Structures are given as structure tokens and as C-alpha cells.
Amino acid sequence: SKWVYAFGGGAAEGRSGMKNLLGGKGANLAEMANLGLPVPPGFTITTEVCTYYYTNGNVYPADLKAQVSAALTQIEKIMGSTFGSIDNPLLVSVRSGARASMPGMMDTVLNLGLNDQTVEGLAARSKDPRFAYDSYRRFIQMYSDVVLGVEHHHFEDILDSHKSDHDLTLDTDLSAEDWKTVVAAYKEKVKEELGRPFPQTVEDQLWGAIGAVFGSWMNQRAITYRRLHDIPSEWGTAVNVQAMVFGNMGDDCATGVAFTRNPSTGANEFYGEYLVNAQGEDVVAGIRTPQYLTTAARQAAGADLPSMEEVMPRVFADLEDVRRKLEAHFTDMQDLEFTVQQSKLWMLQTRTGKRTAAAALKIAVDMAEAGLISKEAAVRRIEPGALDQLLHPTLDPKAERRLLAHGLPASPGAASGRVVFSAEDAELWTKKGEKVILVRIETSPEDIGGMHVSQGILTSRGGMTSHAAVVARGMGRPCVAGAGELRIDYRAKTLKSMGQEVKEGDVITLDGSTGQVMLGAVPTVQPELTGDFGTLMGWVDSIRTLKVRANAETPLDARTARHFGAEGIGLCRTEHMFFDPSRIIAVREMILASDEEGRRHALAKIQPYQKNDFVELFEIMQGLPVTIRLLDPPLHEFLPGNDAEMEEVARAAGTDIAVLRARNTQLHEANPMLGHRGCRLGITYPEIYEMQARAIFEAAVEVARKSGKTVSPEIMIPLVGTKKELDLLKEVIDRAAAEVFKASGTTLDYLVGTMIELPRAALTAGAIAESAAFFSFGTNDLTQTTLGMSRDDSGPFLEVYRQRGIYEHDPFASLDQEGVGELIQIAAERGRKTRPNLKLGICGEHGGDPASIAFCQRVGLDYVSCSPYRVPIARLAAAQAAL
Ligand code: ADP
Ligand code: MG
Ligand code: MG
User: Fold this and answer.
1) Best exposed site among 155, 186, 641, 645 by fewest CB in 10 Å?
2) What are the residues whose beta carbon lies below 5 Å from ligand 3 (ion)?
3) Which residue from 695, 844, 728, 854 is spatially nearest to 777, judged by alpha carbons?
4) Which residues participate directly in catalysis (predicted)?
5) Is pLDDT above 90 for 793?
6) How far is the CA of 816 from the centre of ligand 3 (A)?
7) What confidence category does residue 797 fall into, taking pLDDT thresholds of 50, 70 and 90?
8) Is 467 among the catalytic positions?
């Protein structure tokens, strides 16, 4: 079978659709070659070889060697040089490339094919022999590090001491002779570390590197990464072998990385960095400060070093051309890697570029408006959860700022927190409940955990494509990178900048959108939801069929919900209104009363407050439906916590404290979640629901009259398990309505419905629907009651359950579609059979979870209801579910 796919010379055997077989890098190199872009010739060894290797006791397929050497000959033909030849050696890079980009895999080895003889041949052929020895030392270091396991620092030490012995500062200051000396010392070191010399046979070098790529698929870091990202180990990795092109041959050479649009803002401008006379890894490694690609970006940053546009205008124009072609072809923003050898451009990689949520939005909208993609594609492209980044506050432009430093706007958003100087400290402080800003000279993959828990990240070194910048954008953390004036002292845990000193624990603020760093906490303002956001949400709303409501009870929540586009309230939890300090005493009095009369006495005190709550809600919601759930929690949740509170209640009720204490004890329950709560309260103490219903209707009548708008209360009974419960309570509500309407001389439409949160309710939904005008699936309780698993106590063992694959997701966060979902489906079907126009919604946490929303769409619910900040996320998820 075919194990090797060639590319280059204007054609390729693979294409971008073959990522499973060729890995992301290999498939896109093939695609670029097919598009006629300048790609150094090479070949990809497929992921199937990796799978074969591991299922056959670590051996390669028999015919692999022959296919590799045929493909190598093909490269030699195109390049006019020969692998291992002394006169005219071909050098290659060996690059790993899984389907999904995977840090933790083997790094790239460049300049493979150099040995003591070929290096002389290469030197003899080039204008400046320096480049040959520079390449050789790079090769020895990389190969030794990633293939032979001789650590980096050995080589860095050798280079550093050579530089200080000879009074040299920069790598570019070293001559051919210098590099020769360094190479000799490197080889000596390898021999010392391994007890054998650095491999001189080019075939051994090649197979050593190929073996290291396949070997790295099973190293611990890669295994961990796969587990965290749900990547199956059967996928395997591909290996790319590609002719070297040289960015380190002199001043008409360069290497760089670019995004076809600004990855931070999404602006349609070319964005990138490059280094003259350098090889690939130098840009990311942060050894030298990279220069800007475009003059506009250079000027905006006030940088001195010239842009590529200024230094190599012709090559830059070629790169612009590639940018246009790739965007038109892939119809998405691309992340490019390129090298310039003696004024000729070579493309080394393209992939879909990572971007911030704001950039994702802008790019999708711009591309749809330009007709490059459809509106549906634009909507499909935004990950709903990523919108979260855009819904949170930004720095108040009017607030005073005490500037501490200025860096690159690497990842937008505002963040304030206490300064910590290491990833471990970030995690430690966060565990203690502190909000932190991680400050580092630069970050590395070991810092991921600390970056994740931090509010924001600040570095003193590195560009827009540095580790900190890329990772922060991916995580949606604000980041200011390369703030050069910062003097960070890890040992003293201080930073100095612009004559000011900041110690560990001091508060600073980052503005990742401008690159400013401020002392202290700067106040924030709510984001504008217009512009691209508004445009995209307009498309979203025209696509989706599911309505989106919010769970809200306070006026603030209700306003936020409307601001974010909620189409009503799906769950107003009335008990939250009871905790207000001005009424909790009356609530306690009501609960502790020993008879109906005592309860009515206390309820009369609560009713005016409760009515006002609803007046406010109805006013804010301006005619949109408002679903109000009558009292639900076990009464003991409201009980006085101590003697002082007990006395307060005794005074208010005019009762003896001893009587109250006895009643308090009486109310204690062993399993309150399955105890005296929900509609059971309404059955035993109908006067509570009666009071609530009255308050709702009086408020509705008042607002309807004042505003002239319809007010649509939907009264919802919790924890119903039988039709009879609902019938009894509906009677109470209807009676209250009739009385209020009669007294006020007005009537209005209202609905009485039920929560479905017990399996019995779901199963008997056909009967319950005879009395219920709507069902709202309370999936928090329905999950709890279906799985028989307490949501308050399940954390510790659920984690183990997830690790063992018993439940793939936390069933309280993402709906258990197999179990709980089945009950929802049964209830929806049986309910609608009885009452075809039965309104169906969901109001658990799941109402804001995209996967659960897709499920709700499939079973035909009318709406989802979620917390106000998740409303836009739910709108987008609903649109995607409808596509
Ligand atoms: P990564 O997946 O870590 O980005 P790559 O395989 O893309 O690793 O290699 C990193 C860099 O090495 C590339 O961006 C490029 O600059 C350089 N490189 C890889 N192959 C070649 C080559 N054949 N010629 C010149 N430079 C190369
Ligand atoms: Mg790369
Ligand atoms: Mg419930």
C-alpha cells in the first residue's frame, strides 16, 4: 500500500481534505503545492504508518524504506542536489504533523543531511561559507536535543562562553570560523553525553528523526495532551520530510510568520513578524526581537527596525499575493510560515489561524459581507462559548489611569489582579481566592496551568506570536506582551518600570486591547453590543427557531437579560425575593407559624413587597412573557441561623422563643431536596401560593393599566409529580385571579403550567398536560432525580466518573441526553399528544449549554432559558442547531 505522498514542483499527491491521512501540516503543504505556490518539495509519511508501527510491535511496514527513498530521489531531481552528496548536498527538514496541532510532540529538525563532509561541500558552494557552519551548529543542537535527548542548555552554555571569550554579543556577530569552533565543541559534548559520536551517516540521521517523530506520539506529554483534548491515540501522527530552504544565507534572506488578518482585532490587514538572516525557530524563540512585516504595523507600534515591506518590497509583494490566494482558497484567516532565500519566497506552512473572539466575529462578518462565505457559514464559524469574551466589561475610557508600562496589545480585554511572578504562585494564590495577573519575562508551555487561572498575562519580552500571546488569545485571557521597560526580578519578586516599583501582591490592571499596564484597579464599563456583534446576532436571530429566555428575578438581571436579547423570562425564582433583609423576618415568621392564621398574618406583610417585585419585572419586560415559579425550596432554608435572629422573629411574631425553637426542630428534614418543598408546600399551606398569585395578578393588572401593554404572566408550579397536585394548585391560582380581576375590574390572559423535574411527571405527562398550559423542564432537578445523584454532593465522585468514562461530561453542565434526554422526549411527546399547542421550554443550567441546546432543538422545544450573560451564547447555539 501507499505510505508516502509527495508534494512540490507545482503538484502534489495529497490535498487539504486528506488531513486524517497526512496530518494538518502535510495536507496543507500539498494543497499549497497544488495551488502553484512556492513550496519546497518534500513528502509526507502517512499517519497509517504511525498506527502500523504501534500495532506491530514498533516496526515499519516492509515497503516503507523503498517508498521513502523513491520520494527522496524525487526531491533530489527537483532541487538538483543529492542527499549525502559531498559536492552538492541536499538538506531536509523533518517535521511532525498530527491532524490537530499538538504541542508536546517532537519539534522540527532542520538542516538534516549535514555532516563533517557535506558541510564543507555546502560551504564551498555558497557565497558566504558562514551560513554552512551556522546551519550545521543549528542541526547538531536540534537533532541532539529532539532525537538524541541531549538537552538544549549544554549547547547554549557552549555558545555563551564562546561569545564571552571572544567579546561577541549577537549570533549574527559570529563568523564562519567562530561557528566552526562551536561545532567542534558541540560534537565533543554529544560524545561526552552519549558515549558515541554524533551520527555522520545521513540515512541514519533521517531514520533517527523519523523514528523520533513516531516515538514522540507516545511520550507522556503527548499522551496527556491527547487526554485533555479528547484526541484518540489511534489517529497517529504523520512525518513531513522537506527540502530545506535557507533564511540564513545573508541579508537578502529572512524567515517569518504571518496572519492574513489581524488575529487580535480581526482587521483586514496583513499582520506578521520576520527576521533577516535567520532560520525558522528564531522568530518564536525570542532570541532576537522580530521586526514587523508591514510598515503600517511598524509605525503604529513606533518601532525603529524597518518592516519587510520597506526592506524587501518585491518579496513582500509576492507574500501579499500568496496571502490573497490562500484566503480566497481557504475562505478563512490563515496563519502562515515562510522563508526567503536570496530574495525568493518559499511557503512552509498554512493553517486556519487562532484568533480572539472579537477577531473571529469581525472576520466572519467581513467575509460574509464581502461574499466570500455565506451568512450561515459565518454563523456556523463562531464558537458560541467564545462570545463570553465579548460580553464582559472593558476599561472605562473616562477613568484615571496611572500608567506603569506599555507593551503589545497581544490579547484584548481588561483585567485587574494581584501581581504574581510564577505559574505556581498564580495557582496557589487563586486557590486562596485571589485574582492574579501573571507577570513573566516570557512564558513557556509549563506555565499553561498558571496562565489559565490568571485574570491576565504580562510579559516583558516577545512579540505578537510569542508563546504568551498565542496561548492567551486561545484562552481568551487579556495579555500585554513584550513590555520592554519592565525590569522583572524573579528572586526579589518585584518589577520596576518608569521609576515605579511593584511588589508581589500589588494590584495592577492590563488593557490587552491597547497594551497599556496601569497601577491599581481601573474601573470598567459594559461592552457595546453593536457593530459586528449586532450584525452577526441579526443573522443568528433570522436563522434560529428556538426562542431564548433568561433566568432572572432581580431588576438588574432582567435588564441585563433584555440588553442581551432575551425574549422573556423563563424562570423567575420567587424564593430569591424572600431573602431580602427587609422581609426575611416576616418570611421566618410565616414559616415558624403554627397555624394558618399565623401564616396569613405574616404573608400579609410580605405581599406588598412581592407585588412590587413583579411590578418592576413586568415593567422591564414590556409585554414579553414572564414565567414565575411559586415558592420551591424546603422551608428550613429560610430558618433563623442563630439566637439573635430567632429573637428577632419571636418579637415580630409576638410568640415565645421556646415555641419557635420547637417548631424549628420540627421542620428539620433528613433529605430536604426530596422533602417538604415545591408544590408540596402549596398543597400543605395553600395560603402561600395564594399570596404569591395575588401579588402576581395585582402587579400584572397595575402594569397593564399603566403601560397599556399586554402583560403575560406564566405561573409555574414546581416539583409536580401527579396531575392531582397541579389541579389543586391551579384552583388556588384561578381563584386568586378571579378575585383580583373582579376587584380591579380588569382581566388579562395568563397561563398556569408546571415544571417537569421528576421522572414521574415526565412519564405521566399525558395526564398532566390536561391541566398544564406549558411544561418547563427543570433539568437541574430532573438530572438529580433521574440519576439519583445529588448535585450538591456529586462533585468529587463525578470527577472520577468522568475520568473513567462513565459519564463523558458533567451531567449537571451538559444534558445526559441518553437518560434525562429520553425522559424529556417522552414528556414532550405525551404532553403534546394531549395538548398540541403545549408550550415547552427548559430552564436548568443546560439551557445555556450549546450541546444541550442542540438537543432541545431536536426534540422540538419552543424555548431555552439561561442566565442573562449566556443569552447571546444560547441565541448563537440555537441558530447553529437550526442550520
Ligand atoms: P511547528 O509545527 O512547531 O511550527 P514546523 O515543522 O512548522 O514546526 O517548523 C518550524 C519552522 O521551521 C518553520 O516555521 C520554518 O520556519 C522552519 N522550517 C521547517 N521546514 C523547513 C524547511 N524545509 N526549510 C526551511 N525552514 C523550515
Ligand atoms: Mg509551524
Ligand atoms: Mg427544581
Assistant:
1) 641
2) 757, 778, 781
3) 844
4) 467, 843
5) no
6) 17
7) confident
8) yes
End position of a domain, from candidates 218, 243, 268: 243
- CATH number, domain at 510? 3.50.30.10
Task: Classify residue 39: in a domain, yes or no.
Answer: no
**Whether residue 676 lies in the annotated active site:** no
DSSP states of 27-73: HHHHHHHHTT-----EEEE-HHHHHHHHHTTS---TTHHHHHHHHHH
Query: Same domain for 57 and 112?
Result: yes
Element (H, E) at 751: strand 751-756
Per-residue pLDDT at 754: 98
CATH number (domain holding residue 285): 3.30.470.20
Helix (H) or strand (E) holding 559: helix 555-563
Q: Are residues 269 and 236 in the same domain?
A: no
Q: By percentage, how much of the chain surpasses pLDDT 90? A: 73
Question: Does residue 237 share a domain with residue 308?
Answer: no
Same domain, 493 and 598: no
Query: Is 116 one of the annotated binding-site residues?
Result: no
Predicted local confidence at residue 238, as pLDDT: 96
pLDDT at residue 478 greater than cutoff 70 = yes
The closest-lying atom of ligand 1 relative to the alpha carbon of residue 240 is 6
Is residue 13 in a domain?
A: no
Distance 757 CA to ligand 3 centre (A): 6
Residue 147, domain CATH: 3.30.1490.20
Annotated catalytic residue, options 843, 846, 856, 866: 843
- 259 and 119 co-located in one domain: no
- Residue 101's pLDDT band (cuts 50, 70, 90): confident
Question: Is the same domain home to 343 and 404?
Answer: no
Assign 412 a pLDDT band (cuts: 50, 70, 90). Answer: confident
pLDDT, one tens digit per residue, over 33-42 is: 999 999 999 9
Residue 59 alpha carbon to ligand 1 centre in Å: 27
- Choose the weakest-confidence range: 43-47, 112-116, 250-254, 527-531: 527-531
Indicate which residue of 50, 154, 253, 467 is catalytic: 467
If one residue of 134, 337, 345, 465 were mutated to test the ligand 1 pocket, choosing by the most ligand atoms within 8 A of its CB, it would be 337
* Residue 530 pLDDT level (bands cut at 50, 70, 90): confident
Residue 18 lies in a domain: no
Check whether 573 is labelled as a binding-site residue: yes
Closest atom of ligand 1 to 96 CA is 6
Residue nearest to atom 12 of ligand 1 (CA): 280
Q: How confident is the model at residue 510 (pLDDT cuts 50, 70, 90)?
A: very high
Residue 292 φ/ψ, nearest 5 degrees: -75, 150
Q: For residue 751, which of 861, 624, 839, 843 has the smallest C-alpha distance?
A: 839
**Ligand 1 site residues, Cβ closer than 6 angstroms:** 40, 93, 95, 107-108, 110, 242-245, 255, 280-281, 337, 339, 348-349
φ and ψ of 185, to 5 deg: -65, -40
Residue 464 to residue 460: CA distance in whole angstroms: 12
- The three-point CA angle 204-205-207 to 5° equals 65
CATH number at residue 610: 3.20.20.60
Q: Minimum-distance ligand to the CA of 135? A: 1
* Rounded Cα gap, residues 810 and 800, in angstroms: 11
Nearest CA to ligand 1 atom 24: 244
> pTM of the prediction?
0.82
What range defines the domain where residue 94 resides? Answer: 52-243
In DSSP notation, 532-548 reads HHHHHHHHHHHH--SEE
Instruction: Tell how far the Cα of 142 is from the centroid of ligand 1, in angstroms.
Output: 12
Domain boundary among 243, 278, 309: 243
Q: Are residues 202 and 131 in the same domain?
A: yes
Instruction: Read off the pLDDT of each residue in 401-415 and give the average, rounded to a whole number.
Output: 89
* Total number of domains in the chain: 4
Q: What is the mean pLDDT of residues 261-267?
A: 93
Confidence band for 284, pLDDT divided at 50, 70 and 90: low
What confidence category does residue 285 fall into, taking pLDDT thresholds of 50, 70 and 90? low
- What's the confidence (pLDDT) of residue 534? 94
Residues 654, 698 within the same domain: yes
Query: What sign results for the dihedral spanned by CA atoms 629, 635, 636, 640?
Result: positive
Q: How far is the CA of 251 from the centre of ligand 1 (A)?
A: 20
